[in-house]
From TrEMBL:
Alphabetized Pfam families for the sequence: Fn3-like (PF14310), Glyco_hydro_3 (PF00933), Glyco_hydro_3_C (PF01915)
TM annotation in the entry: 16-35
Name of the protein in question: Glycoside hydrolase family 3 C-terminal domain-containing protein
Occurrences of domain Fibronectin type III-like (ranges): 426-499
Gene3D superfamilies the record matches: Glycoside hydrolase family 3 C-terminal domain, Glycoside hydrolase, family 3, N-terminal domain, Immunoglobulins
GO molecular function, one term: hydrolase activity, hydrolyzing O-glycosyl compounds
UniProt keyword annotation of Lipid biosynthesis present: no
GO biological process: carbohydrate metabolic process
Length: 914
C-alpha cells in the first residue's frame, strides 16, 4: 500500500471522539436508542474500516481529476515584465521568500454543509518544494507558523501545524481572515545573533517574494466590504514586502472577489495568480504554473472591481453601519412577529427582505453596459480585471472566419493561432450585443457560448465551430408581452478576449420580431410549453435600474424607510393555510386508487427502462400505501425511503459541493463513513472555461459514489455571484448564468451517467445567507429571475439531465421557494421538462410548510429532525392530512405524484449502480 493510500486510511480514524462529542452537542440530549444502535454505531465503526480496492481506485482517480481541473482553472491575472514563469530544476532550484499566514494555513475548502477534512491536503510549501522544485526560506515559514500557533514572533524551529480543516462544519466566522505577522516583526533585530532583521536575511536569500492572501466563507456567513479589502496588517505586509523585494508574486486564495486596486501602487508586484480554493492537491498546479511546467489557461468568472460598493446590488444587499460593517437587523421588517424556539442559524425575529433592484445588471453586464452608454463613466478606474480575463505564457491571435445561419442555429467558425513560443490553450468567448429599443432592458455584452481550445503548438492554427440557437439571445419581457422576445434589428456577435476587449465581430440581422408566446411563435424549441410570467408578486416595487443610471435609483440608494414595514399581504405570506378538497374543487370521484394488490406485484427493477410518461408508472405507484407514500415524501434526510416489498433500496445521498462525503450531519443518519476527495471550489472548475472539466469532475464524483454506495449527491450548487458578499460564493460557479449553467450541466451529466441523483441547488434566488432561514422575502423582476438566476438551473436540467433539485430557504415574492407552484411545477416541470424529484433544503424552520411543499410540486422533505424523533416527523403530518376527510384527496393525489417522481429518479440510478 502506497503512502497516499495510508494517508487516506488514517483520515478515517482521526477525530472520532471529537466528531461524536460534537454530535452529542448538536443533538443536545439522549438519542433515539434504535437509531444509535443501527446508524450512529455503524457510522462510528465504519471510521475504522480500511478502504476497499474500489475506494482506493476512486481516490487515486479523483486526485488526478483535482489536478487536471486546477491546471486549467487557476488564473494568471497579471504578469508584468513576463516575470513568470520562474524556471527551476532539480539541479538548480529557484529561491522564494513566502509571506502571509495563508502561505502556511491555506484555504483548501470552506465551512458549512460542504465541509471536508483537509488535514492531509497538499500544503503549499510542500507543493512548491516537491512539485515546483523551489527552495523556500525556512525562517519565514517558522515566523508564520509560530505567530499563527501562539502569537509569538519567533523563527525557532517548531513542528509544522496541521492544515486545520478550514472547512469545519461547526465553525463560525473566525476563519474568514487570519491575523498576519505584525509589521514590527520585520523590523525586529533580535531574531538573529548578528542584529540584522529577518527582511535583511530574506533579501540575502532571494530577491523574489510571494505573498498569499485569502478569505474564507461558509454557511450563515457574509463578508462585508471591509473584509474584502486588505486589513491593516495585510496592507503593512504588502508595503514591507513590495518595498524590499524587486519581484513579488501575489497569490489570491479566495473564492470571493477582493479589492485589488492597490496593485498599481506597488510596481514590485509583478504577477498575480488567483487559485480560489484549490482542493486536495491543487497546490501542485500552482507550483507547476509558477515554474512553467503548466501554461496557465484559466479565465476569471467574476468582474474584479476597485470598490465592491460600486456594484448596483451592494446597497440593497444589507445595511451597513457607520464603520462599514453589516448592521444588526440586515433588512428586517420592523412589524414582523418573533420566532418561538428559533433553529440553527435562525434569528429570534422573522421577516427579512432583499431587493434585486439592479435587475439584469449583475457583474459585467452592469460595468460593460455603463461603459458603452455613459460617457461620464470611467471604466478603467472601476474595473481592475474584467470578467473572462486571464493571461498565458504564450500569445494568440483569433478571428471569425465565417458566420452560418441554418434555421434557428447560428454557427461561428473561429480560427485560433498560437503566435508565441510555447504550447498553450486559449478560450474562445462569444458574446452578443442585441438591438436596444427601450421596450426591454438589455445589456450591451452577454455571454452566449464559449469553448476551450486544445493545446496549440507555437505557429499552429486550429479552427473551432461554435453553434448556438437564435432564441438564446431572447430577452424576457415582463412588462408587455410577458414572454421571451427577440426584437428585430442588428445583433452584433462578438469574439472577445474577455467581456471588455473585442477581437472581431459579425452582424446578424433579424428582420422581424419573434415573440415566443401562444399567439405568435409558440414556445422556444427547448421548452415544452410557452414560458409565461410566474413571479409577478416578486416585483414588489417597479423601480429597477435602467440605462439612465439615475443616481436616485433604488439600485444605488438601497431600501427606503417604508420598505421596513411589512404590508398585511407580506405578513399573511409568512404562514400557509392548507386548502380543503372542497375549496380545490375535488369530489369523491377524484379519489385516487392506492394500496392496491396486483395479481403480479410490480417491482422497481421492472421500471428501470420505463419512460416517465408510461401509464405503467401509475399502476406501479398505486401499490403504495398511505404510510409508504408519507414516508417517501416526509423522511428525506440524506437518504430516500426503503420499501423492501417493492424492491426499493435505501438511497444514500450525502451533502457537499466540493466533495461527496459523509460528515457529522449526514454520516450518523446514513450510518456510513464514505469520504471522498476535496475538489477545487466550483469557481475554479468554471474558470477552466472548459465544459469537459465539468464532465470530468462529475464522472469522478460518480465513480466515488459507486465505491461508497451513494446514489445521490446534494450538489452541484449554482446560485449566482450577485455580489462578493455571500459567504457561500465558494460553492457557486460565477456571476454569469450561462457560464455557470454550461459548466454545472456537465458536472450533472457526468455524475448522472454514473447513477447519481444530483440535487442542483439552491433553487432559486438564494444569493444571501443572513436572514434566509428566518423568512427572507426576495424581490426581483421576472426578467432578472429568468435570465440571470434561473439560467444555470435551466441548463443543468435541459443539457445536464439532472434527476434532482433542492429548493431554497427563501421566499420568491410571497411564496417560499420550496412551496412555489410557479417555480416547481410551471417552470421546472412544465416548461423545462424536468423529470425527477424536488427536495427541500434542511427542513427545520417555521416558514417551511410541509403541506405547502407537497401541494405546490415539491416531493421530499429534507427532514433532519425526524431521525432524532424516533423516525417520524413530517411524514406523520402528511399521513394525517391523507387520512383527513377534508384534505385526503388532494394530499393523496400529490403524494402519489411525489412518489412517482422519487421512485422514477431512483430507478434511473439502477443500471449504473449494479
Amino acid at each position: 500500500m502506497g503512502n497516499t493510500e495510508k494517508t487516506k486510511l488514517s483520515k478515517k480514524k482521526k477525530g472520532l471522539l471529537i466528531s461524536l462529542s460534537a454530535l452529542v452537542l448538536i443533538m443536545g440530549g439522549v438519542l433515539y436508542y434504535a437509531f444509535v444502535v443501527t446508524s450512529v454505531g455503524h457510522w462510528a465503526i465504519a471510521k475504522f474500516k480500511p478502504d476497499t480496492e474500489e475506494q482506493k481506485l476512486s481516490y487515486s482517480s479523483a486526485i488526478e481529476t483535482v489536478e487536471m481541473i486546477t491546471d486549467e482553472g487557476f488564473v494568471l491575472m497579471q504578469n508584468n515584465d513576463n516575470f513568470l514563469p520562474i524556471p527551476t530544476s532539480e539541479s538548480q532550484k529557484a529561491k522564494i521568500n513566502l509571506f502571509g499566514t495563508r502561505s502556511v494555513v491555506t484555504l483548501f475548502n470552506s465551512g458549512g454543509s460542504t465541509a471536508t477534512d483537509v488535514t492531509n491536503a497538499m500544503k503549499l510549501e510542500d507543493a512548491l518544494r516537491e512539485t515546483g522544485n523551489f527552495e523556500l526560506n525556512e525562517d519565514l515559514l517558522y515566523l508564520h507558523y509560530n505567530y499563527y500557533k501562539n502569537g509569538r514572533v519567533s523563527i525557532n524551529e517548531t513542528a509544522a501545524p496541521r492544515n486545520r480543516s478550514d472547512s469545519e462544519i461547526l465553525g463560525g466566522e473566525t476563519n474568514l481572515i487570519l491575523p498576519e505577522v505584525p509589521k514590527g516583526a520585520y523590523e525586529d533585530n533580535s531574531l538573529y545573533g548578528d542584529g540584522r532583521t529577518i527582511i535583511e536575511h530574506a533579501q540575502d536569500f532571494s530577491d523574489t517574494a510571494m505573498i498569499v492572501i485569502g478569505r474564507g466563507g461558509g454557511e450563515m456567513v457574509e463578508l462585508g466590504p471591509n473584509e474584502l479589502r486588505l486589513t491593516e496588517e495585510e496592507a503593512d505586509m504588502v508595503e514591507v514586502v513590495s518595498s524590499n523585494f524587486e519581484n513579488v508574486v501575489l497569490i489570491i486564495n479566495s473564492a470571493n472577489v477582493m479589492e485589488l486596486n492597490f496593485l498599481n501602487d506597488y510596481p514590485a508586484i509583478k504577477s498575480v495568480v488567483w487559485i480560489g480554493f484549490p482542493g486536495e492537491t491543487g497546490t501542485k498546479s500552482l507550483a507547476k504554473i509558477l515554474n512553467g511546467t503548466v501554461n496557465p489557461s484559466g479565465r476569471l468568472v467574476n468582474t474584479w472591481v476597485s470598490n465592491v460598493m460600486s456594484m448596483p446590488a451592494a446597497n440593497n444587499y444589507m445595511e451597513l453601519d457607520a464603520a462599514g460593517n453589516w448592521a444588526e437587523g440586515f433588512n428586517q421588517f420592523t412589524n414582523a412577529p418573533k420566532v418561538t424556539n428559533p433553529g440553527p442559524g435562525q434569528s429570534e425575529y422573522s421577516g427579512y427582505f432583499t431587493q434585486y433592484h439592479e435587475g439584469i445588471f449583475v457583474g459585467y453586464k452592469y460595468y460593460e453596459t455603463r461603459h458603452a452608454t455613459d460617457e461620464s463613466f470611467n471604466y478603467n478606474e472601476e474595473v481592475v480585471f474584467p470578467f473572462g480575463h486571464g493571461l498565458s505564457y504564450t500569445t494568440f491571435e483569433k478571428q471569425i472566419l465565417s458566420m452560418d445561419v441554418q434555421g434557428d442555429d447560428i454557427t461561428l467558425r473561429v480560427a485560433v493561432r498560437n503566435t508565441g513560443d510555447v504550447p498553450g490553450k486559449d478560450v474562445v468567448q462569444i458574446y452578443y450585443n442585441p438591438p436596444y429599443t427601450g421596450a426591454i432592458e438589455k445589456s450591451t455584452v452577454n455571454l452566449v457560448t464559449f469553448t476551450k481550445t486544445n493545446v496549440i503548438e507555437p505557429g499552429e492554427t486550429e479552427n473551432y465551430s461554435l453553434t448556438f440557437k437564435m432564441e438564446d439571445m431572447a430577452s424576457y419581457d415582463y412588462l408587455n408581452h410577458k414572454a421571451y422576445v427577440l426584437e428585430a434589428g442588428d445583433y452584433e456577435l462578438m469574439l472577445k478576449e474577455n467581456s471588455h476587449v473585442k477581437v472581431d465581430s459579425e452582424i446578424f440581422t433579424l428582420k422581424e420580431e419573434i415573440i415566443f408566446n401562444a399567439e405568435h411563435a409558440g414556445a422556444r424549441s427547448t421548452d415544452l410549453q410557452v414560458a409565461t410570467s410566474q413571479f409577478e408578486d416578486a416585483l414588489h416595487i417597479d423601480d429597477y435600474l435602467t440605462r439612465e443610471w439615475e443616481p436616485t435609483s433604488r439600485a444605488f440608494t438601497g431600501p427606503q424607510q417604508s420598505d421596513f414595514v411589512a404590508s398585511q399581504e407580506i405578513l399573511d405570506a409568512m404562514s400557509y393555510e392548507v386548502p380543503t378538497d372542497k375549496e380545490l374543487g375535488f369530489t369523491s370521484a377524484d379519489m385516487p386508487v392506492y394500496g392496491q394488490g396486483l395479481a403480479t406485484t410490480i417491482m422497481l427493477s421492472d421500471m428501470v427502462d420505463v419512460d416517465y410518461n408510461d401509464p405503467l408508472w401509475e399502476e406501479f405507484i398505486s401499490q403504495l400505501t398511505l404510510k409508504e407514500m408519507a414516508d417517501i415524501a416526509g423522511t428525506g434526510a440524506y437518504q430516500l425511503a426503503q420499501i423492501d416489498r417493492l424492491g426499493v433500496p435505501k438511497t444514500l445521498q450525502p451533502d457537499g459541493t466540493m466533495a461527496i462525503a459523509s460528515n457529522i450531519y449526514s454520516g450518523p443518519i446514513m450510518g456510513v463513513e464514505g469520504v471522498g476527495v476535496t475538489y477545487p471550489s466550483p469557481s475554479v472548475t468554471a474558470s477552466t472555461w472548459n465544459a469537459d472539466a465539468g464532465f470530468l469532475m462529475g464522472t469522478s464524483v460518480g465513480t466515488e459514489a459507486q465505491a461508497f454506495g451513494y446514489s445521490g449527491w446534494f450538489a452541484p450548487a449554482m446560485n449566482i455571484h450577485r455580489t462578493p458578499f455571500n459567504g457561500r460564493n465558494f460553492e457557486y460557479y460565477s456571476e454569469d448564468g450561462v457560464l455557470s449553467g454550461k459548466i454545472a450541466a456537465q458536472v450533472v451529466r457526468g455524475a448522472t451517467e454514473k447513477g447519481v441523483i444530483t440535487y442542483i441547488k439552491h433553487f432559486a434566488l438564494n444569493e444571501r445567507e443572513k436572514g434566509v432561514r428566518s423568512t427572507l422575502f426576495t424581490w426581483s423582476n421576472e426578467q432578472a429571475i429568468r435570465e440571470i438566476y434561473l439560467k444555470p438551473f435551466e441548463l443543468a436540467v435541459k443539457e445536464g439531465g439532472s434527476l434532482g433539485v433542492m429548493s431554497s430557504f427563501n421566499l420568491i415574492g410571497l411564496n417560499w421557494a420550496g412551496g412555489h407552484e410557479g417555480l416547481l411545477t410551471e417552470v421546472l416541470r412544465n416548461e423545462w421538462g424536468f423529470e425527477g424529484l424536488v427536495m427541500t433544503d434542511a427542513h427545520m424552520y417555521t416558514h417551511m410548510d410541509i403541506m405547502q411543499m407537497i401541494y405546490s410540486g415539491g416531493d421530499v422533505s429534507l427532514d433532519v429532525m425526524a431521525v432524532w424523533l424516533g423516525g417520524d416527523n413530517f411524514n406523520k403530518k402528511l399521513l394525517e392530512a391523507a387520512e383527513n376527510p377534508e384534505t385526503q384527496i388532494a394530499t393523496i393525489t400529490n403524494l402519489q405524484r411525489a412518489s412517482k417522481n422519487v421512485l422514477y429518479a431512483v430507478s434511473r440510478t439502477w443500471k449504473a449502480q449494479q
